[in-house]
Amino acid sequence: MKKLSLFLMSAALLAGCNKSVVKPTSPALNSTGNVKSSLTGPGTNYYVNASTGSDSNTGLSTSVPLKTIQAALNKTTAGAAATINVLPGTYYERITFPNSGASSASPITVVNDGGTVIIDGSTTNTGSNANMITVASKSYISINGITVQNNIMAYANGIAVTGSGTNVDISNCTVDNVGWTTSLTAVPSSSNNAHAIFVEGTGATGALAYNNVYVGYNTIYDCATGYSEAMTMAGNVKNFLIEHNVVHDIPNIGIDMSGHYSYTGAPDSVNYARGGNVNYNTVYNCVSQVATSGGIYVDGGSYINIQGNTSYANGAGITVGCENNGYTATEINVRDNFIYNNVTAGIIYGSNQASSKVTYSTLSGNTFYDNFSQGGYGGEVEYQNTDHLNVFDNIIQSRSNVVVIALSGYTSTNLTMDYDDYYTLSASSGTITFDFGTAGGWYSFANFQAQTVIPNAETHGLYNIPGFVTASLPTPNLHLTSTSACVNRGLPGYVAATGELDIDGQARVQNSRVDIGADETSY
User: Fold this and answer.
1) DSSP state of 429
2) What are the CA-CA distances from residue 45 to residues 31, 59, 109, 164 (Å)?
3) Which of 276, 280, 333, 336 is CA-nearest to residue 309?
4) What are the beta bridge partners of residue 198?
5) 446 in helix, strand or coil?
């Protein structure tokens, strides 16, 4: 294998994906990200009231409201701003945006007008439309503060954005009980699929991607998604930001960015989610009965940062791979995350297909703690097919003595590992397992540092108890104490990537040297 110096390691990180997506302007939100209680948005304002409205009204004031949200949407004009103010209530309908807005500052917005607005599918699930909210090849759309629930049918979707377009904003929404069945314990077959939020780019060129998609501050729970995921970016989708969402109690994957699936119809050259940031989400209790389900999963996507998330009690904390053979996922940067108490590994990095790899990626500044809760033999960090993966500045504390496994039948070429801090059940650096299968196994920290299969591995690595504020499961506090051995012990000269912050959204480097793990201290 080719030796990669620390200088080149830093250069590779800085050359990685630093793309960012600016949240579309939304008249429905105040500066704290909450829905306003009273508003007048851009363009024509329409008002909807399920109790007192009539679709024969103009809808231009609260005294003459429309009865259905769809009637208000049907009054919008293509290329013109409009705000649909939905008064509190339950709306038994499925809605489709017939028009695009004017610009990111002048969208067509559906927003709750100061209370709980529920779009309920329990009485409308017998037709062919499986979506509660449909955005099909429309641009400059905002959906804010809406609860979507009770959509139980084959291929059910809560909010579906498909085709091509730009500037779609889904904020402050709740999606629950959307699925192929109501039962979260039913064992699905591959034909059982559903999503809470589904974004699918089907365009034939990069210019026809779904571009600038924002999904933030939403809550998704209790959705039986079958073989699909709670939140999905699939196909020709680029420049997306998924942030501050809470996804929990899903019997499969929580958040997924996928590529190279033929069902999208997009050509290979653009058929993958790319140029995205997945930041500061909390994902838990996403466990499949039929496969290992990551809380957050990149499956064939590229140029994606996964930063500042908290992932626990999932099938696996985070998974990065490419399930379609013959393709490559590249520049996936997993950094500054808390990952703990997951059923299997904290992270599984690499493709499980013989002719696919994850390439030119980084795993840095994360805190892995007491994963593999199911017991048995397994690592905090597990590798499949990777090339040029740089691993550094991570805390890796195992509930057993196994820390890293290169899974059998896969290869990790041009792998670098350094400046990580390890700790194991034995509390002894002489009892620790790095299992690289046929390439070798090393059962003390000193032996791993001395081996030559992975040149210079952990030359500057540590074996120390990390020094967390509290390490008690199920709710540990994985921030560092002032006496932690990980403070100011990370990669010297490390410069944070553009937009990179620690787990708390604070500066990633303080006191001139980065800390090991996801928490950057001022000590």
Assistant:
1) T
2) 21, 8, 10, 26
3) 280
4) 160, 232
5) helix
Pairing between strand 441-442 and 433-435? antiparallel
How far is Cα 209 from Cα 202, in angstroms, rounded to an integer? Answer: 7
Q: Do residues 219 and 262 lie in contact, with contact meaning Cβ atoms separated by under 8 Å?
A: no
Give the C-alpha separation, 501 to 277, whole Å: 13
Q: Is the dihedral of CA 333, 289, 477, 401 positive or negative?
A: negative
User: Is 342 in contact with 373 (CB distance < 8 Å)?
Assistant: yes
Cα separation of the two ends of the chain: 38
Place of tokens 């297909």: 353
> Which parts of 387-463 fold into alpha helices (H)?
445-450
Euclidean distance between CA atoms 449 and 462, whole angstroms:
10
Distance CA 3, CA 345 (A): 27
Residue type, 252: N
Tell me the C-alpha distance between 214 and 220, whole Å.
15
User: What is the rounded distance in angstroms from the CA atom of residue 260 to the CA atom of residue 262?
Assistant: 6
Query: Which tokens belong to 74?
Result: 């049907």
Torsion of CA 189, 190, 193, 197, to 10 degrees: 130
Rounded CA-CA distance 380/37 in Å is: 45
Around Cβ 375, how many Cβ atoms within 10 Å?
9
DSSP β-ladder status, 332-335 and 316-321? unpaired
Cis check for the bond before 474: say yes or no (omega within 30 of 0). Answer: yes
The DSSP secondary-structure symbol of 79 reads T
Q: What whole-number distance in Å separates Cα of residue 254 and Cα of residue 522?
A: 33
What is the longest distance spanned by two Cα atoms in the chain?
A: 79
Q: Which two tokens stand for residue 105?
A: 């500052």
Dist CA 238 CA 87 (whole Å): 34
Of 362, 358, 141, 388, the closest CA to residue 259 belongs to 358
- pLDDT 10s per residue in the chain (523 long)? 222 233 233 333 333 444 444 444 333 343 334 444 445 788 999 999 999 999 999 999 999 999 999 999 999 999 999 999 999 999 999 999 999 999 999 999 999 999 999 999 999 999 899 999 999 999 999 999 999 999 999 999 999 999 999 999 999 999 999 999 999 999 999 999 999 999 999 999 999 999 999 999 999 999 999 999 999 999 999 999 999 999 999 999 999 999 999 999 999 999 999 999 999 999 999 999 999 999 999 999 999 999 999 999 999 999 999 999 999 999 999 999 999 999 999 999 999 999 999 999 999 999 999 999 999 999 999 999 999 999 999 999 999 999 999 998 999 999 999 999 999 999 999 999 999 998 999 999 999 999 999 999 999 999 999 999 999 999 999 999 999 999 999 999 999 999 999 999 999 999 989 999 999 999 9
Q: How many residues does the chain have?
A: 523
* Angle, CA 343 vertex, CA 339 and CA 346 arms, to 5°: 30
User: How far apart are the C-alpha atoms of 357 and 316, rounded to whole Å?
Assistant: 19
